[in-house]
Each structure stands twice: as C-alpha cells, then as structure tokens.
Amino acid sequence: MSKLFYSNKPVIGLDISLTGIKVMAIDANKWRVLGYGSLDLDPAAVQKSLNDPEDTYLGESITALLKDHVIGTLGSDYAVIGIPTGRTFSRTFTIPTKEVARIKSALEIEVEQYIPLPISSLYVDYRIVERTKDLVTVIMTAVPQVLVDACTHAAEIAGLTPVMVIPSIDAVARVLEATEEGKLSTLIIDVGPATTDIAVLEGSAIRVTGSVGIGGNTFTLDIANKLGVSLENAHQFKVINGLSLSPRQAKITKALHPSLERIITESKKVIRYYNERLNEEKTIEQVLIVGGGSNIPGMGDYFTNALVMPARIASPWQKLNFGKLKEPSKQFRPRYISVAGLASIAREEVFL
After folding, report:
1. pLDDT tens-place string over residues 251-274
2. Which residues are CB-contacts of 18 (< 8 A; sequence separation ≥ 6)?
C-alpha cells in the first residue's frame, strides 16, 4: 500500500484493471452511492500504459470515463487508486517483539528472499496487524514503482489527484468485511474478466494473496471452443446455464473444468500457505466468490465440492444504496465491488 498524502477532502475510488477502469463516489457512513461509471479498454493498450508512465492511453481513457460515462456526481478529484493485484506482492511474517525497531531490515530480507524483483524497483509498505508479548505480525506489500507511477500519472492526466494506491483485492476485502460476515477467516476468490485474484482475509487484513491468468473471458472462450458456438452464444450459456442442472450441464462443466481447476489449484496453494506458515490454529471458515466473472450459476457448489468448505457467490449489494441513481444491471453489478471498497476509504485513513 502506498499512501501519498493526507487531505481533509472526500475521496473517490478509481479502479484500474487490465480490461477496464471504474470510478465511484459514496457516502461511506450510509453506503450511499453518489456517482459511478465504467469503461472497457483494450488490454494490450492498457498493458503498454502500465509499463510506460509516459504513455497517454490510460490517462486519456480515464478522462473519457469522467467526462462521458459517469452516472450521478463524484464531487471530488482526490482519488484512491486500485491497481491489479496480480502485479503486486503481499506477504505476512512475524518478528520477535524486541526486534520491532529493526523492522525495515526484516522487510528487506523478505523482499530479497521471496520477491523476484530488486528492492530498488519497488515501493514497499507494511502494517503491524497483531502484537503479543513475544511476536509481532507484519503484513508487507511491495509494488513495482513503474506500475504505481503509471497509474498515478494517468490519473493526473485526467485531472485527478492520487492520495492512496492499494491492490484491488484489499478494496474487495473492505466491502466483504462490512457485508458478508467478514470477521470470519475468509478465502476470497475475485474472478475478473482476465485474471482471478485469491486472498485470505482474517480480521480486517489480507494475510496472503495469489493470482492466476484465468477469468470470465476465459470461460466464454472455453465454452465457445468446446461446444463449437459463437462467443455471443457461449456467453449466454455461461450466464444462463452455467454449471447448474440443465441439458447442457455436462458439456459446459467439461468445457470449464480445466480453467476452474487452475483456480482451484492456486486456491489450495494459498490455503496451504496460510495454514502452514501463518496460522496453524485457525482454519478458513468460508469461501466468498466475487467479481465480474463470477456470474456463473452453480459456481458456488463447484467450489464447495472442490475445496471441501462452504463457498458461495457474495452479494454485497444490499449494503450499497443507489438512491435515485439508475443501478447497474444485475449482470454488471459484480464488477463494481472493488471500486466500492476504494470509495469507502475515509479521509482519516489517508496519511501523510
């Protein structure tokens, strides 16, 4: 997490992914949406912008989003930015309480041992989440500097002032904690259009993350290829029939199985790391599936059987009040969960 500076002004959320951008403003006390919008983008062009802070595609796209695609009003130009989780690195580790004064040295050791990038190319931040007489538990997040610089520069091109940068999965966790029994130890599976992010939420903190290059678009392609249908028909089969009981259930399940198993494999790795390295005493109590690619009937049952623990599609929308604003269609609501989490960050959380 990179905290850039503090301001006494309300903030808005700006979520940047490889396939699109979203913006939202809310009254966090009432969870009332003041304004929101989204814009799909060319993944190759986004990738180029994220690797080159001087590229203007992302900045011009944010400008277009703010000008032509916002429902309601945002009321602020101070933005909390969510960045792709798959390009960040989060780890939880412990150090002796008596060594807290040397925590920066411990961070450097963690980066050198477990992150495949030189520390000089990263922004590194940390948070102490638990203290006992003998041990301190620390959550560290490291992000490539070029990624943060590209996202903040793009926001500035659009006339926004970045005040905080966090991985999008942390924003998702904020909403789930407030709406979906988030105090339970939770495995979050965030299925986006192109990637799936996986994390363990314990208390109010993400403890470990993982990511795999499988998403909702992958599922559509799988169905189209295996069933020999158009992408449009494949999408309809995915969101209408999915994995639930239907004449097409066996064929669709067979088509999606390889991609779903890659998500299952990565989920088990994250669970194993949490159980063996972080918390031998606690067990994960629920699996919450979110994101724009999670709108597949029967997905909750599939993950329940595969992971042998209760899994369900999260529905945090009862918490958000759109008032008189036109609400997103049911199909597109899941895509706004991360930006809602960003917009819910109170100005008191943005520090110098």
Report:
1. 999 999 999 999 999 999 999 888
2. 43, 46, 47, 50, 84, 193, 194, 195
Average pLDDT estimate for 35-56: 93
Q: Tell me the CATH number at 216.
A: 3.30.420.40
CA angle (38 as vertex; 35, 42 as ends), nearest 5: 160
Tell me whether residue 21 is in a domain.
Answer: yes
125 lies in which domain range?
Answer: 89-142
Look-up of token digits 């403003």: 25
Q: Are strands 12-16 and 78-83 parallel, antiparallel or unpaired?
A: parallel
For residues 128 and 64, what is the distance between their CA atoms, to the nearest angstrom?
39
- Residue 25's nearest CA partner among 9, 40, 13, 15 is 13
Is the four-CA dihedral 42, 48, 52, 56 of positive or negative sign? negative
**pLDDT tens per residue, range 114-129:** 888 889 999 998 888 8
Pairing outcome for strands 12-16 and 20-27: antiparallel
Note the pTM of the prediction, 2 decimals: 0.87
What is the SS3 assignment for 113-143? Answer: HHCCCCHHHEEEEEEEEEECCCEEEEEEEEE
Query: What are the respective helix, strand and coil percentages of the chain, to the nearest 5?
Result: 40, 30, 30
Do 230 and 264 belong to one domain?
A: yes
Strand ranges (DSSP E) for the chain?
2-3, 12-16, 20-27, 32-40, 71-72, 78-83, 89-96, 122-131, 135-144, 161-167, 186-191, 196-202, 205-212, 286-290, 311-313
**Dist. CA 338–CA 341, nearest whole Å:** 5
Please check whether residue 195 lies inside any domain of the structure.
no
In this structure, are 276 and 134 located in the same domain?
Answer: no
β pairing state of 32-40 and 20-27 = antiparallel
The answer for residues whose C-beta is within 8 angstroms of residue 30's C-beta and 6 or more apart is: 321
Q: Which helix (H) or strand (E) holds 345?
A: none
In a domain, 335, yes or no: yes
Query: How many structural domains does the chain have?
Result: 3
Q: Which residues share a beta bridge with 5?
A: none
